[in-house]
Write a structure and sequence with these properties.
The complex is a heterodimer.
Chain A (H helix, E strand, L loop, with lengths): L3 E6 L7 H12 L3 E4 L6 H11 L3 E6 L4 H5 L2 H7 L6 E6 L8 H10 L4 E3 L5 H25 L1
Chain B lengths: L2 E7 L3 E8 L5 E8 L6 H16 L7 E6 L6 E5 L6 H11 L3 E6 L5 H10 L3 E4 L9 H11 L7 E3 L3 H11 L6 E3 L13 H18 L11 E5 H14 E2 L2 E2 L4 E6 L4 E6 L10 E3 L6 E6 L8 H8 L1 H8 L3 H13 L8 H22 L2 E7 L2 E7 L8 E4 L2 H4 L4 H6 L17 E5 L4 H7 L4 H10 L1 E3 L2
Parallel strand pairs in B: 1-4, 4-10, 5-6, 5-7, 7-8, 8-9, 13-19, 15-18, 19-20
Antiparallel strand pairs in B: 1-2, 2-3, 11-12, 13-14, 14-16, 17-18, 20-21
Classes of the chains: A alpha/beta, B alpha/beta.
Chain lengths: 147, 462
C-alpha cells in the first residue's frame, strides 16, 4: 500500500512554489499527497493527517519564522494520537546566517525526524523518505507481531 | 388544465397550494391545523375543505406532493472524525437534507456519547469519518459502538469507502436499517454531500414518513418527498440555476426567520470575488443551508434580545425599556401570539431585523488580513456572498412585516462589519405567497412549471 504524505507551508508564509514542486515530485514517486498549500496553521496539518491516516507530514517554511511556528509540533501530533507519524521540516528555517548543524539540532530536538537546509534537491528528500518509511514499516510490523 | 397540489405539513399548520402547471400561477391557498399527533387526516380534511371552497370544488390534480416538518422535523445525529473536517462535512450534508440537527459527534464515540445518542433518540443518523484511503479505524470503532447500543434508527453510512460495506452489514441487524452512500469528504479538498443527501431523503420517504404517522394521509396525497427545509433549498437552487429554456437568477440567498430558528440558504460557489484572496478551510457546498437554533421570533426571542441588547431593541422600536420588556415577556409566554398593536408590530420588526442580521452574518464567510513577511494577505473562510444578486425573504415574520425591505437590508454588507462577506447590492424580494416549498416539490416532477411558479410570485420590495 502506498504511503500518505501531508505537505504544506506553515504559518503566515506564502512561499508556495517550492512546496508545490515537492508535492508533485512526491506524487510522481507514487505517494498519496494531501497538499494543504500556503498559510497553513500547525493545527491544520494535524487535522488533515488524522482524517487521511497520513504516514508523514512534510512542513515547509521559507520566511525565517519556522522555529516559532513549529514549536510544539510533535507534541500536537502525540496529543492527536499520531504517535508514529514521520515529521520532516525544510526551507529557510531561521533568520540570518546560523550554522546548519545548530539549526538542524534545534529542529530535531523539537521532535522532527529530519530537517533539510535551503537548496535541498527533491531527490535527497525522496531517498530519505524511502529509507525512513522502510524502517518505520518494519518497526510497526514487529510491534504488531509482539501484540 | 393540469394542476398540482403541494402540501407542507408544518409543526402547527398544514399549508396547501394549488398551482397551474401550464403557467406556474397560484390557483388557491388554504390551510388547516397539523394533527400529526392524533390523525393527520383531521387537519388535512379541514385544509381540503378550505381549498375546495376557494377553488369552487377540487379539480383532479395531476400530482399531489408533500413535504413535512411536523412531529419535530427530521431529528438527526451526525458522527464524523475530525470536528472541522468529516464531522463538519456530515453536518453540511444533514442540514442540506433538511434535517433538524439534534447532536453532532466527532472522534471516537465514548460510552457517554452513546448514552447521549440513545437519550436523544434521533429519527436518523449519519455516520462519517476518514477520507477515502484515509482513517478507517475510528469509523469502525463508532459503528461497533452503535451496533452494541440500543439505537435502532436508520443509519446512513457515508465515510471512508473501504469501510462502508462492512459497516452496513454490521448495522443491518436487530431490525436496523443501514444504507451506504459515497463519502461526504472523499479527499480533503473535495466535499461530496449530494449522495448522502439523496440517501437521507430516501430513508425519509421510506421510513420516517411512516414513523411520524404522515403515511395515513396516503389516500389524499401521492408522496411525501422530503423535509420542508429541503424543499426550500430545492427551490433556491432552481431559482438560482434556472432550467432548460429559463435563465436562472444567479447566486442568491434565502432567509427564513421562523418561530424557533432562522434558516439561511445560499446558492453559489462562494469563491473569493476579489482576486488575490486565499481560501482556507473545508470546501463549501454550492447549495448551503445553515440553521441558527438560537434565533427564533418566538421560542427564542429572549436569545435575540441577549445578542442585541434590550436597550438597542427598545431604541430601534421607539419604545421605552419597560414597554419593550413587557411586550417581550408577553410574546415569550405565548409563542402563538401574532402582533396586533402598533408597538407589537414595531417590536416584531426589530426582532426579525436582528435575526436576519445575525443569521446572515453567521452564514456568510469572513475575510481577515494576515500580515506576512511579504505584506498583508487576505484569507477567506466560508462562502463569499458579496456578489449575490438576490436576497429573498420567506416565512410569516418577514412576509407580514410592515417594512420587509428594511428587514432584508439588515442582511446586506455593512461598513460596521467589514470582515463578513455578506451580499453587497442584492435585489430584495419576498416569497409573499409562501410558495418556495411548493416550487421545490413541484421541481421534482415539472421543473419548468416550478421555476415559473417560484419566479413569477417573488415580490420585489426595493
Amino acid at each position: 500500500m502506498s504511503h500518505t504524505i501531508v505537505t504544506g507551508v506553515i504559518g503566515a508564509d506564502t512561499h508556495i512554489v517550492g512546496n508545490r514542486i515537492l508535492s508533485m515530485a512526491l506524487e510522481d514517486a507514487g505517494y498519496r499527497v494531501v497538499s494543504l498549500g500556503a498559510l497553513t496553521p500547525a493545527g491544520d496539518f494535524i487535522r488533515a493527517a488524522i482524517e487521511t491516516a497520513a504516514d508523514a507530514i512534510l512542513v515547509s517554511s521559507l520566511y525565517g519564522q519556522g522555529e516559532l511556528d513549529c514549536r510544539g509540533f510533535r507534541d500536537l501530533c502525540i496529543e492527536a494520537g499520531l504517535d508514529d507519524i514521520l515529521l520532516y521540516v525544510g526551507g529557510n528555517l531561521v533568520v540570518g546566517k546560523q550554522p546548519w548543524d545548530i539549526v538542524e539540532k534545534r529542529f530535531l530536538d523539537m521532535g522532527f525526524d529530519r530537517a533539510f537546509p535551503p537548496g535541498t534537491r527533491v531527490e535527497g528528500a525522496l531517498a530519505a523518505l524511502a529509507a525512513d518509511f522502510a524502517a518505520r514499516d518494519q518497526r510497526l510490523q514487529a510491534r504488531r507481531r509482539a501484540e | 388544465m393540469k394542476s398540482a397540489l403541494l402540501i407542507d405539513f408544518g409543526s402547527t399548520w398544514t399549508k396547501l397550494r394549488a398551482v397551474d402547471m401550464e403557467t406556474g400561477a397560484l390557483l388557491a391557498s388554504a390551510q388547516g391545523p397539523s394533527t400529526v399527533a392524533t390523525d393527520v387526516n383531521i387537519g388535512l380534511e379541514a385544509a381540503f375543505a378550505a381549498l375546495s371552497s376557494a377553488l369552487g370544488g377540487l379539480p383532479s390534480f395531476t400530482c399531489r406532493l408533500a413535504c413535512s416538518s411536523a412531529a419535530g422535523g427530521l431529528r438527526m445525529v451526525t458522527v464524523g472524525l475530525v470536528r472541522e473536517l468529516t464531522a463538519e462535512a456530515a453536518r453540511q450534508a444533514a442540514l442540506g437534507a433538511g434535517a433538524k440537527l439534534v447532536g453532532g459527534f466527532a472522534y471516537r464515540l465514548t460510552s457517554r456519547d452513546v448514552a447521549e445518542i440513545e437519550a436523544l433518540a434521533p429519527d436518523i443518523m449519519l455516520l462519517c469519518g476518514g477520507t477515502n484511503g484515509g482513517n478507517s479505524e475510528v469509523i469502525l470503532h463508532n459503528a461497533h459502538a452503535l451496533a452494541c447500543s440500543s439505537v435502532r434508527c436508520p443509519v446512513v453510512v457515508a465515510g471512508n469507502r473501504e469501510t462502508t460495506d462492512e459497516i452496513v452489514a454490521l448495522l443491518s441487524c436487530d431490525g436496523r436499517t443501514a444504507m451506504g452512500a459515497a463519502n461526504v469528504l472523499p479527499a480533503l479538498d473535495t466535499l461530496d454531500i449530494e449522495p448522502a443527501r439523496t440517501a437521507i431523503r430516501d430513508v425519509f420517504m421510506e421510513r420516517i414518513v411512516t414513523a411520524k404517522g404522515i403515511d395515513r394521509a396516503s389516500a389524499r396525497i401521492d408522496r411525501v418527498l422530503m423535509p420542508t427545509p429541503a424543499a426550500v433549498l430545492e427551490a433556491a437552487r432552481l431559482l438560482a440555476v434556472g432550467v432548460e429554456g429559463r435563465e436562472g437568477l444567479g447566486p442568491l440567498v434565502i432567509v427564513d426567520p421562523g418561530g424557533a430558528t432562522t434558516d439561511v440558504h445560499s446558492i453559489g460557489s462562494g469563491e473569493p470575488a476579489t482576486p488575490g484572496v486565499i481560501r482556507h478551510g473545508l470546501p463549501e457546498p454550492h447549495a448551503k443551508r445553515t440553521v441558527e437554533g438560537d434565533l427564533g421570533m418566538r421560542h427564542n426571542a429572549g436569545a435575540i434580545v441577549d445578542a442585541v441588547g434590550l436597550n438597542a431593541i427598545a431604541v430601534d422600536a421607539g419604545m421605552t425599556l419597560d414597554a419593550a420588556s413587557s411586550v417581550l415577556a408577553r410574546i415569550e409566554a405565548d409563542v402563538e401570539t401574532l402582533p396586533k398593536s402598533e408597538v407589537e408590530h414595531r417590536l416584531d420588526d426589530v426582532l426579525v431585523r436582528a435575526a436576519v442580521d445575525i443569521a446572515i452574518g453567521r452564514h456568510a464567510g469572513t475575510v481577515e488580513t494576515v500580515y506576512t513577511a511579504q505584506g498583508p494577505v487576505q484569507v477567506q473562510r466560508g462562502k463569499d456572498l458579496s456578489e449575490v444578486r438576490w436576497l429573498i425573504g420567506t416565512g410569516g415574520a418577514l412576509v407580514h412585516s410592515r417594512e420587509p425591505a428594511s428587514v432584508l437590508r439588515a442582511g446586506i454588507a455593512s461598513s460596521r462589519k467589514p470582515q463578513q462577506l455578506r451580499p453587497r447590492a442584492p435585489r430584495l424580494a419576498i416569497d409573499a405567497d409562501y410558495l418556495l416549498f411548493a416550487a421545490g416539490l413541484l421541481a421534482q416532477v415539472d421543473p419548468v412549471a416550478a421555476f415559473d411558479c417560484a419566479s413569477r410570485h417573488l415580490r420585489l420590495v426595493e
